[in-house]
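pinning this so it doesn't scroll away 📌
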Amino acid sequence: MFAGLTASQYQVVLSALRSEIVKPGQHIVSQGYGNTNLYILRKGRAIERATDSHRMKELRSSIVQIGRLFNEMAFVTGGRSDTAVEADTECTVWFISRGDFQAILKDNPDLAANISYAPETVATMHRTSKYEWLEPGERVEIERKRHWWFFGKRMWFPIVLAGGFALLLAGFANLAPPGLLWLWPVFCVPYVAWHFIDWQNDYFVVTDRHVVHRERVIFVKDQKNQMPLEKVDSIKVKQTGPIEFLFNLGTVTLQGPNQSEVIFDLMHEPQALKNAISAEQERVRAANHVTELSVIRGDVRVAMEIAPRPAPIVVQPTLPKSALQRTKEYLGSNASTFRSTFAPKSRVELNQGKQIIFRRHWLDLLDTVWLPGAIFAAISVLAGFIIAWRFDQILSVSWNVICLPVALLWFLAFAWLFYHYEDWRNDQYILDEDKLVDLDRKPFGGETQRNEVPYDRITTVNADIKGITNTMFNVGDVVIAKTGGDKLVFERVHDPKSVQQDIFKRIEASAEKKRAREKEQRRKELTDWIGIYDEQARLHGNRSVP
């Protein structure tokens, strides 16, 4: 991987390496877990094991040679480890974290050009970076577009038009104007190009985590329907009409809880696609099962005293901040508070990213304040004109009859404008660690509505952009379907596809925490039983019942 680096580049990488001593029986890397460090064995003996996630049995086992790199795939892609490496004797390993290495590449752009990857790593890197919405380590497994008939059936217009021109020229060749032949491409080329781009813009993707349908029409709409793969309850295939049977086309509907669904329409060989998606679901379930077995194996070894217990995590005490740091943080906090009060951002992260707050785009604000804003501006211009025209008489009794009503109207218009601004600013869409919140607050202590949805109740999340203006400014709705059939809508947020991905990241993190708690409980019960059995076996030996 680093063989092509120059001496100076190699020293930069070496300076980021850290050393760790691993006791016999401890896992350096656990298969299926998100350890993205790159390791080099410097001393000792380690065993690498890989388990076939399809057959759920050990596929290969090999000795890790001194100086060999391992866990390269997870390090490069940011995904989960595809093998397990266990220390057979006391080992010394060098490792570099993926985050540190990414920082090195950012500071040394020429270094990336000299790094070489194995062919299978390159293929996996392509599958994990093909789309901007992929999460770290998420791999594209199935990718489809609609059959060419989707484009072909819309070509009736240029074909009919071409036939009409041909008949016209054949029957009235002498009477037809000389430039008539050029009218066909003028009308038909833009039409054909538009529909060809519309056909190629849309795609259907199945990853190892999600199913996705992206529907795009230039300047009209951009819609992305997405559902976690694990929430797909059923897959239905429907074929109707002679054309679909002739070309073996059909619609594949992936249905989740409460009739939520993602539709793959006009797919070629729909039954084969259904089988491929079902196989991917089984592979993901098997991979999760293999991951749990790998951890259980380690827990059992600890319970049977074959391997040492993992060392407790030592939290390093934080150093006290200097007076200058505290002053900078105080001023920065006040500046941020002032800005968020009068000109709030559309997306704000709080508590080191634990909470994300979204607001509706300023286009939505313009839709509500244009009328009070126009009236306020008109009254302001009128007041300025009055002041400039008769400033010397403005305090006279005769002018008070005019000025006071104008001042009152100006104040009422300003209050109307400020009310709508506060109503826009107060509404928030919040992503907490364990739930999603839609907060709707009326200004000046008015009615407050708070709608909360735990992440495990969310079934699908769709991003939808419609209209030329919204497409230009990347503004749209994020529709969240939840169990029970209800929906929650983040209305007119900026970059709805990014908001959609933020929600899915929270859903995945919440599901991972829930799975970890359940697995931890099962492992604890299992290892307790095995520990009791091992204790009794050592105390009493293998005795037969009389």
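📌 and the second one:
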Amino acid sequence: MIKTIKLAVILSLPLLLLEVWGKMHVPTMCFAFLFCLFLSISLTQLSHKSWLQLSLKIILVLLYLFTLFMTFIEAVTFDFTGQGFTHEFYYHISLDAFRVGLDKYGWGLAVLLALMSVMVYGLLRWTQNTAKPHSSAYLVFFLSLILFNQTVSGRFLLGWHEYYQESDEAVDKQQINFWLKNGFINRADVPLKQLVEASKGEKNLILIYLESFNQFFVDTPPFNRLTPGINQLGQRFTAIPHESSAYVTIEGIVSSQCGTLLTMKKGNDSMMKASHFLANLPCLGDVLKEAGYQQYYLGGAKMEFAGKGDFLRSHGYDYIRGLEYWLEQGLDLNTNVWGLGDDELFNQAFDVVVQAHGQTAPFNLTLLTLGTHLPGYTYPECDELNLDDHPFLAAIQCTDYLLSRFIQRLEAGNYLDNTLLLVVADHGVFPNPKMKEVFGDLVNDRRLIGFTNHSVNGQKQAMASYDLAPSVLDWLEVSHNTQFLFGQSIDDDSHSSHKHLTRYKDWQNGQLVKNPKKACADIDETLLNVCQKNQLGSWLTQQHKLMSKQDQVLALGCSPDLNIDLEAAPRVFEVAGVNLYEKFHYNGYYMQKRQFTNGWFALELNEEQVVTDLKYWKQKDMPESEWQQKLDQSLGSNALLIRVNSSGKVSVDSKINQLWQTQELDNINLCQ
């Protein structure tokens, strides 16, 4: 028994030390010790002489090693972000994230791997002399498995399950109308980005996202001493009270560009890392593209990290420059593990402004800095400053200096004369232990920096991150027909009753407050409860799924089969064995909830007979005498047109290489 207790202590010691580092709770530590105790009992009761018992012993050793490794990962994650296995943790799992983590915690991983090697050898060697294996060993083995689920491994697996689960809870029209009426959402649905219309733009746009830059850096002593440049700019520019809608970078960019919230869940295959995600949702870049803007995105980090590059490419940005581009140009990264340093980033941005300013088309230059990403980075151009000893505080000083100098260069060259400048943060600083040591309770102040050279009149309340896109379009004086699920211009008269939400908490009277745990039927017109918030998240995920292109494209081949029954429930519109009814769009909206039983269904095709778009027109929209003329204006060179009249009769025409031809319903040939 003494041997078993000793082994339990030895096994639990590294786990408990990691738990302490990760600021875990006492119950968590107790479960970790109990797991190690049952593990020790099992290991000392199982023999090496039986292949079954040896196999069980190896399984237990592997479970322990997995628990040790995951405890290290959780502690590292908590040390870096202040949170454990949240949705954004699973979202950011990638080789690039591992590379960054290795740069900061590589020493710890090396120690852990060495410890794990010693543990494997020691456990098998120390427990191999079990003379009389107990029959109770099998019972304790299964008890060990149960306790395994209560350890960090259980938290990891539970979080993984929640991240991947489908969000398909039905939300009725009454609930959606309640959200609309009380300002929790701005729209129940939005048109596809293909339907975006906008007047020609005249003003340029320079939009700067500062990484992890809270407002209290600027307005709260003693930290406001770190931002003399921004403080001086504040005397000439307009401050924009800015309430964060996001907690990580990609969330902040998508929220502000597209006027929506992200659930940061994999459910319904709507992961940002896939290039199809939100590809059909209208965003700021889509409207500006329609308005004739040349659009540039400059960032120091890899464009593939968290899917930024794919997202921006699918929303109107013409020139996307990240770490991959800078390496091709041979630029010095200044030892920043994330990518190009902010000093060189601002220099490159100034060159782009000079180049774009000489063109006839207006431009949108969007920047994302890196300096205030944890743990904080400074650059040679800031060496002349009296930098703080703490790396993150020094990073604030350096970012302030580089930003204010960049704006001064723009003003000196008169590049802001016909240009909207907007400086915001992507999200706030992570509330991890190190940041709490520096800022105390201020880490919970999620107000973000925001200022502009635009004169904002009559502002009634703060701007949420997802209000940025509609506000910017107003300030650029670009007329458009786009609306956003959550975002609303702060110049809108109804913005004063507009609620500001986030994934975790919601804003109320300038403070982030927890959603109360109440029944869904317990309605509050000012604050959603947890049940209603979950319903909203489910509805939002479904909306995002509708606005995302599908992974699979439909290849028709030469002779696709048709099976159409629009009187059925659900409606059947099968082409080549795939029901496409809900994937058609009419006037920019998907057909899912629209009950059309006749009309014109057009499948746009490429040269390989692969479907590239699905469009629908009501029968009254297309006079019989003009259908070819109207469709030629809307379709490419290849298409399959299926007409269903009011009596359900189906007729088929194809357009191949600009030539229309009537097809036989039972013998379609697209390769003539």
